Amino acid sequence: MSNRVHRWHTRLMAAAGATLLATTATPVMAQAFGERSAVNIPTCNRDCLIGYARDYMAALAKKDPSSLKLAADVQFTENNVVIPIGKGLWRSISKVAPTGLEAADPLTGQVAWFGVVWEHGEPAYYAMRMRVQNDKIDQIETVVHRRTGLPAPFGDPDKVAHHPAFNEVLPPDQRVSRARLIAVAQSYFNTVERNDGTVFAPFTEDCGRLENGISTTAPGKGVSAEPGANGNAASLASGCLEQFKLGIYYINKRIRERRFPLVDEERGVVIASGFFDHDNEVDRYKLTDGREMKTALKWPNSITLLEAFRVRDGAIQEIEAVFTYVPYFMHNPWATGREHGEQGE
């Protein structure tokens, strides 16, 4: 081999070695859903994020957002409408429940809080998702459900009990991956969508669901949004699986703009958002056992929600949701791409 060829060969091998070294030295981390880069190193752990959420709720109770670490371009929504921080509920708030369901995802910098607030002494159910980046809050998404004449669950605000499983760290052999947790939550929405008795989602035998502070899976305790005018979900069947086998939720034409911004693998928790669209093309439908149901509302409408799932051994153990009615086919400004208007027939 000539000296010139030898020098070329040596430089080529050195370059290949440097490339391999750089590749193996790069931190290996799965890409977080919704994140632009596969390399995302958390800077605020779970306790840190929960602290941001508690500070936010404390500031809300005082009607004073000035104490918060807000990004200059912070975006705030209430029931899918972009409004300035400090407006909306910030003006009418009179009290915040001392505790709530809390969840955090250091990988995406997201944190959530579900609970009860009061406006001029009147209770309302509330859910908040927030993102923290570079030590600043830059996203705040909230859903507020007030008591109205529309058919929706509304629990006793003094008796709300958030399931303790949402805070329990799972043994390693009961955990599943981030992607699998999102897939399980998706399977739930797939089951709810045009529910005809087919069940795509896995449920534990003790699966329960809390909607706006009240159980909608325990007999005699719940009224579910639009299950039918002549009966509520909990009185028709108990438990998550049995209700879906009956096809109670057939009126949900689509579950639209689904998002899963927060995942906690250690606790098996997923926080999701989306819309349940009720086109109400028909006002009567039959359950799989032959019983006839009537829709409670006769016009097209949607509900917007933030929903928490707790997954154990790959199956849904507990669900908690805060939802409220919004105009039919309303858009969520946090949703992007195909999520907006999908299945828009």
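Above is the first protein from milestone M3; the second protein from the same milestone is given next.
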Amino acid sequence: MTELAPQELRVLVAVAETGSFSAAARVLDVGQSAVSHSVRGSEVKVGAVLFERGRGGARPTPAGLRVVALGRRILRLYEVLGAEARAAGRAAPGREEPAGVLRVAAFRSAALHLLPPALERLTARHPGIRPEVRVVREIGAGTAGEVAEGRADLGIATLGAADGVPPGLLSGELTVEAYSLVHPAGHPEPKGLPLLDWDENCGSYTRAWWRAQDWIPRATVKAEDDAMVLTMVGRGLGMAIMPALSLREATDAVEIASLGPDGPVRRVGYVTTPELASSLAVRALIRELRAEKA
């Protein structure tokens, strides 16, 4: 197979992200015929159809999804290559200063409470790093999926979920947080209240424990996120079972009760790609995240 050139990868990524050849041509500032020709050439090179064409535009095939994800990661490596080379050229070996954009994906409570102090220290020590943070819902592919798809250099993810970390990625544990029972302050029988829940609170690490508890009812209210659940509990609308990071926003309107030594826990860690794990900026952020744990 003939290798795809960087510009061919850029075309494939643009088509996938815009949903059509014409829109990709506008983004890339080239003619639509050039985009069509490039995609056809790439398909010949890889030996697979990468897009389904139709009146509704262009949709990646399974082969196309894989090629586009790897293409994003390869293009990102070209960017990192330049930043790493410049850092090596300016400093003695082992004293390279990381610089450039660092793309981070995190779920909401991690983005609010775990990531900010680490980024504050990171940018103070390495002012050349420019973090870009995306808050991603931790459902489906979640933050690890953002890394696998090449949209993030590092993700703050929940580890140990049913789907696990996508194959080929590297991960490391940062913290293990306990779940607690949260209920309206002063309520005499909190376990008799309706259950409030949200979609991101549905990992296998929690549900296996839940199924063994005969006192937990089926959720009657599904909120958009953990902050909304806390607000509704504070209003007396029910009780919830929530992890420690989410409870940092708790007010006096709620009480937090331990679920005991056998209660569920959530493992939170980082996820990155093998090729970026050794990059200066990613290594620097991992150090700060681990310092936060300590």
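Note on the second protein: The two ends are 48 Å apart (CA to CA).
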